[in-house]
Automatic annotation (TrEMBL):
<dbReference type="InterPro" id="IPR021440">
    <property type="entry name" value="DUF3089"/>
</dbReference>
<dbReference type="Pfam" id="PF11288">
    <property type="entry name" value="DUF3089"/>
</dbReference>
<dbReference type="InterPro" id="IPR029058">
    <property type="entry name" value="AB_hydrolase_fold"/>
</dbReference>
<protein>
    <submittedName>
        <fullName>Pimeloyl-ACP methyl ester carboxylesterase</fullName>
    </submittedName>
</protein>
Length: 372
């Protein structure tokens, strides 16, 4: 019955009923995409391995509202409201780990599909409806605020298309509105949040600034990641302003005050956020990792860099050929065997800094609660 209701809604253009639990990918108090296995294998620099399970918070004090990226492989320009394995997988790999600190809410929405994106990149003109996608998320947000929030602090989390939608949501429904009082932070990853050049506030948000301290609440965390030795090429859509006088904000979750810092990554042990791939060894003298995630302490560093008109998160692999651990990571967007350098490390934007983002959410909540 629930599936039939979701299918009927997907066939029309009416606003989804977010009182219907089938229209949520993740909600607290049930088994779903955000209660999947989140165990990680920690591979130290000497190759030693330890198992790290995740312990969800028993009584989380704040909420997380997550909007997933372009991931649906539905054949239509906009997806339906029935989540496929790809939507469930991306929630596991991007949002579920925040459950260590918060209640996670993730609406299913009729997003512009991966099928349509590939068509656009190939020069096609699919009949995409971005308003449909935004209106669904806005309806889910309104339902959450009306029925679930009850004065709690909330962290907004999005990636790629999800970040674009949340950027619009903050601009139209939160900034300067009563809901701004509940905003712990907005983590708008894998997109460009415009601010006046050299400033932390303005641009798209009149009063919501970029985060410049881990003890700052009500602010924005945003970045697009590129390999340090492969900076953004001129044709990229990331890391730049959308008009003269503005630039893309860049905030390093591991060092909001600036500078280079070691990244606390939780990477896919095999494959990427879209598809499961063969498990990798991650060290020369060890078997393939069998947990969904792998953590590699000290292997990656990140720094916000301003260069040639771009602001981006430059990621360095601290390779050491003398230790047994891998000297490279996957994460590039490819067309066949060709790396699309204009996309940077878009596939692993969130995973590169996920430990830092999760820890930051708790610290920002404490700052928010102190202000209250």
């Amino acid at each position: 019955m629930i599936l039939a209701l979701a299918l009927a809604m997907a066939a029309g253009s009416d606003t989804p009923d977010y009182r219907n639990e089938a229209n949520w990918l993740c909600r607290p108090g049930r088994q779903d995409a955000c209660t999947a296995d989140l165990s990680a294998t920690v591979v130290a620099a000497d190759g030693k391995r330890t198992l790290e399970p995740l312990k969800p918070a028993k009584a989380p004090k704040f909420d997380c509202f997550y909007v997933y990226p372009t991931i649906s492989v539905d054949a239509t320009p906009n997806s339906d409201l029935v989540p496929g394995p790809e939507e469930k997988r991306v929630a596991q790999f991007q949002a579920a780990r925040f459950g260590a600190n918060c209640r996670v809410f993730a609406p299913v929405y009729r997003q512009v599909t991966l099928t349509a994106l590939r068509n656009l990149i190939g020069g096609g003109q699919p009949a995409i409806d971005r308003e449909l996608a935004f209106n669904d998320v806005k309806a889910a947000w309104d339902d959450y605020m009306a029925h679930d929030n009850k004065g709690r602090g909330v962290v907004l989390i999005g990636h790629s298309q999800g970040s674009l939608i949340l950027t619009r949501l903050v601009a139209t429904a939160i900034d300067g509105k009563p809901a701004q009082k509940q905003l712990v932070s907005a983590m708008l990853i894998g997109s460009s949040v415009p601010v006046p050049i050299g400033k932390t506030v303005g641009g798209v948000f009149p009063t919501v600034p970029l985060c410049r301290s881990a003890d700052q609440a009500g602010c924005v965390v945003t970045y697009a990641s590129f390999r340090a030795d492969s900076p953004p090429p001129p044709n990229t859509r990331f890391g730049k302003g959308d008009r003269p006088g503005v630039e893309a904000g860049c905030t390093n979750p591991a060092a909001l005050g600036g500078g280079k810092a070691v990244a606390h990554a939780y990477l896919n042990a095999g494959g990427n956020m879209m598809v499961q791939g063969a498990a990798e060894a991650w060290s020369k003298d060890g078997p393939p990792v069998t947990t969904p995630f792998v953590s590699v302490p000290g292997l990656l560093s990140a720094e916000c860099v301003s260069r040639d008109g771009f602001n981006y998160l430059a990621v360095t692999v601290n390779a050491d050929p003398n230790d047994p651990r891998t000297d490279t990571i996957q994460g590039d967007v490819k067309l066949g065997a060709t790396i699309l350098k204009d996309w940077g490390l878009h596939l692993i934007d969130m995973n590169l800094m996920q430990g830092d983002l999760v820890d930051l959410s708790a610290r920002q909540y404490r700052a928010w609660a102190k202000q209250r």
